[in-house]
Amino acid sequence: MNVPVTNALKPAAPVQLENKRSSLRYRAGRIYKSLRRSPAGLTGFIIVLLVTLLAVLGPVVSPHNPEEANLRARFMEPGFTNDSGTYLMGTDQLGRDIFSRIIAGSSVSVLIGVISSIIAGTVGVLYGLIAGFVGGWLDSLLMRLVDALLGIPFIILVVSISGIVGAGLTTVILILGLTGWVTYARVIRGEVLKTRGLDYVTAAYALGQRPYMIMFRHILPNVISTAIVLAATQVGVTILAESSLSFLGLGVKPPTITWGVMLADGRQYITSAWWMTTWPGIATTITVLGAVFLGDWLRDVLDPKTRGRD
Asked: Do 290 and 44 contact (CB within 8 A), yes or no?
């Protein structure tokens, strides 16, 4: 009698699925324990989560229209209340609610930080991966280009791109994306140089795998954690850079609301209406610190040397 061989293999799929679920639960539990043991990491996670929720749910949670002017309520101090409601952080020179404008500005600032970091990270990771993997004269040539870009003063590069493209949201994203990739390239190149000499890479060569397969299948997954940690930190740095550019008039222009634009609007009233610059400055500082704390925690979690301690 012929017995179907495939019947013996049927229980394998549920077992594999259960193993995957157990692995996911284990990883989630390890991450949760690590986050709970790190006060700085937990603080950074909460800050980033709150800012992200404000950016996504801005129109829903804003108590007032951030663009609605009320000249009768100009320069009102924090806590001012009238028929329209309470202005928790006061009003600006046009009577607009500062708190609502900070919520609206969070969406643009976070958008700029994330998109610019994605552009810079993608370019920088590929650049550093190729330079470190190929080595030789190509590595030297690519790194000399990096050194040349680092030698150009940031303000000159900003003015040049602004003159070509024009100031605005797109300009800021291009500036921060085209200047931030250099950091990724240097760090990833160093990681690739350490990784390409390991035994499993040598074994892949011995098995006859093609170089581009080794580069993307074996080396890239082992350096991507470094890129994630760097990206988490660079998002905060990018938001700070956007605020600086907008404050100098080289970034986003009104009526688009960003924290940098709010700082620029309030600088001439800093002695008479301190809240116009204080609250956007605090929002920027807290967000940057949250991103830095989260990046430091991610570095500890994703570092293979620390996984055994959990």
From this structure: yes
